[in-house]
TrEMBL record, chains A, B, C, D:
Keyword hit for DNA-binding: no
Residues given in the record as spermidine binding sites: H62, D86, D155, S156, T157, E158
Organism encoding this protein: Natronobacillus azotifigens
Protein's recorded name: Polyamine aminopropyltransferase
GO MF entry, a single one: spermidine synthase activity
EC numbers for this chain: 2.5.1.16
Similarity section: Belongs to the spermidine/spermine synthase family.
Domain PABS: 2-235
Xref: Gene3D superfamilies: Spermidine synthase, tetramerisation domain, Vaccinia Virus protein VP39
Length: 275, 275, 275, 275
């Protein structure tokens, strides 16, 4: 049977993936949630019509949003993940033995449930005792936190729907307050081919708040254009000046110590967005 | 009007692009050639149903296949491009003032004509006096050449149809013979998500012939998975040991001096293909 | 190359046809005009994203909108076609030797030109000396005509864009005025699966003006649902009471004398729309 | 979420329908069975990638394959349905009070189960005491029957896969034997736009066995071309010579007494297939 999921990543371009069956399909309080069994990518989580993660390529995003800040920080103990209900960031965070507590604040409890059921390889660590899962508004959680976290990752959807507040300068200011004095923050900041203006804006906004602001990239085949960016804001630690001895062996499929540096070497047209 | 071009990059996954009109569509002696005016990517050259290049993202591929070997070589004078009838590699090669002669050997003259007509920003330098264009079989041209070229780029289609010979060890041996004693060669070697075995094979084959064999990557949004690889074989010069003074300013949109190094830092699962 | 034209006939359903090339694609003063070379249907005229006619199945629509009223009228001499710039209705009208003059009033001259160039088997009779082609607003032409025509066919697009006036009671009243005292009129009135309300409305409106109002159907595979309706309004002559001797042999591929009766036997759910 | 089911009805043409979710998807012993919840057509049964029936338009096929032969026969008591596991033909058969027993022989029990679960408005009468359901090979059941049935309907899939034997002259001969001396048989015989040769062959084969052989049509929007044919073979009773008093009131959405005649008036190009 010819059943295909198509995501129009722009009005005029998209990806299309063969679907064996839908595993879940519901309107939650916050968004349309669909879980698809695809032939190419395994199970795929789709929110409001956009691919969030898949069993086959989730490792890229989750490793790169996690290990870059976690190895930049000399001793991350308390970590916050805003969004990220699929549990992939949490899984990577726990690979760092220094982390004593990882808090996940996801606004949509249905995303967590669906991921536990249909994406076990991604969500498997959500029940780890070092993890605290809160179904709550990340924006409000940040507003109430002060000098609490070493590292914060913002693993949000696009700046539409429930995530719209997570792309504002006020939010970044809140994050700065919620971080300890040498804290580090990373947010996914979309792709430079179709969303150059967004990257530019996020970079400008973060730069006004964090002395060290840097953009880095990773290849995610199911995300628009395949070239994804992350914006990192740091109060003290420079990701490009991490001592060799800071790194320790963790099991990864994408991240390497060499890539930790190399991912900050931007294509010229992306670099230009940060100037 | 809803007119969409879809490339199934695998049996179960693909890209889809809105088309305003077809500019050309013919069966040449070698392949099906289609030139599409797309809304997202501008004019797009499609051979045997696969995207070859587009006006909007051509710069990535053409810069990265060219400048990495050309800056690795201390003084490239004579350069050969096998395939590449769209002229994009030639355009980049000519940015290097040391190059006295660039030879293009494209088997399908129709590709050259179509590119000149519909992709002027890509094919514009094919008439440059430093360029010699031959409509000929690249495999045969290589077989007849000896110690002639400083740098050879293999800008071929997938290893099906006319390009099948260009992915054989015999061809790489021929290239080694056609190169001068400190010559360098680069071939596009597809993507690691869907064609891991091909990358592995090419790397093994080239490694048996060239003492310095390295894989590097670039993000090309209209190519399968968005993550493209290039395999570089070099007789003497190591691309990672290029002196700072070797670089000179050229106008690029993707390539930078920093990326020249960084593009060799591979994602772990890609690095594993080279071991 | 996988190039497909898709017409979403509703928000949730459509047809899709493989395209070899676009033959023409332009924004006219009135609409978007595309001429496609399809593999299944031959050349296909698309206006504002909707299939108007194709070389392979045009005969159904053009025969059925023409021969039913023309055989119902005892002696049609002067015939008007409103719309129908592709010339298909004209071709069928001229098969009736009684017709001395067939006037075509098409608002968009580009449709006529494109059809002459790319649909010769349909548009071929537009240059027949019995035909008068006017590039003009059909609504205005009707408004200026009085007791002039024996038969009028309204071969319009959907009631959006340039054709919106052609689905109003005022227009039907104008047609009654433009017809002679025993004149007959037919309008295409869309399909009962997706546009039941439209059929109902047209039938009601025509019925208030024409004593004999009847709906009939034909199967057109490239039109929404495949089941097309025509609304016929007649001042005196009943299409179901045509004498056997009225019919004469004409060459057709769809219309037959038996179908002239049978096409008025409606599926129950369609019949219900006329009550 | 953009999830669409596409049926390529030919290599170059098809329909496409938006899907909310898959309700069932499994490989049975005989075929791939998919049950889709579509937005336009309600639940849709798909076998081996082809639409079998939908909640919205099932009435056309099921009424027309049933009531035409059942009203042609003066007193049908025992009826056989070969295939038809969705139960739609049975539902219509039971509207005839003369029918004492309706036997359904469906080779794939999974089709029956899936229809009971997901197509209750179609399959609802399968548990009626007048109905006997056998999960068995229709070809073998026919071979073992002799002078047993008044009316037989062959409600099969396309002549590929499990249904291939149901389009052979040997099968029609078996049906003749299984029917009583004034029995009537109907088989769906595909569409004249894409399968003209099949219609021609079936008509020829049935004509050699049944003195009265006639083709009739109905509009089914989810079937290829929208114009479907049925081939009727009768030993004595002519469907066009049914007395007015034979008809009685039944509830239908498509079939009417007038259509009983009119559906045999074929488009010229379809009529030509019967000569």
């Amino acid at each position: 049977m010819d059943l295909w999921y198509t995501e129009k990543q722009t009005d005029d371009f998209g990806i299309t993936a063969k679907v064996k069956r839908t595993l879940q399909s519901e309107k939650t309080d916050f968004q349309q949630l669909d879980m698809l069994e695809t032939k190419e990518w395994g199970n795929m989580l789709v929110l409001d019509g956009m691919v969030m993660t898949t069993e086959k390529d989730d490792f890229v995003y989750h490793e790169m949003i996690s290990h870059v800040p976690l190895f930049t920080h000399p001793n991350p103990k308390k970590v916050l993940v805003v969004g990220g209900g699929d549990g992939g960031v949490i899984r990577e965070v726990l690979k760092h033995p220094s982390v004593e507590k990882a808090v996940l604040v996801e606004i949509d409890g249905k995303v967590i449930e669906a991921s536990k059921q249909h994406l076990p390889s991604i969500a498997g660590e959500l029940t780890n005792p070092r993890v605290e899962v809160k179904v709550d508004d990340g924006f409000m959680h940040i507003a109430k936190s002060e000098a609490e976290y070493d590292v914060i990752m913002v693993d949000s959807t696009e700046p539409v729907g429930p995530a719209v507040n997570l792309f504002t300068k006020g939010f970044y200011a809140g994050i700065a307050k919620a971080l300890k004095e040498d804290g580090i923050f990373v947010a996914q900041s979309d792709n430079p081919w179709f969303k150059a203006d967004l990257i530019k804006q996020v970079h400008q906004d973060v730069l006004e708040i964090f002395p060290i602001t840097k953009l880095y990239t990773a290849n995610i085949p199911t995300y628009p254009s395949g070239l994804w960016t992350f914006t990192l804001g740091s109060k003290q630690h420079d990701p490009l000046k991490v001592g060799q001895d800071r790194f320790h062996q963790i099991e990864t499929s994408y991240y390497t110590q060499a890539l930790h540096q190399a991912c900050f070497a931007l294509p010229k047209f992306v670099e230009d967005l940060t100037k």
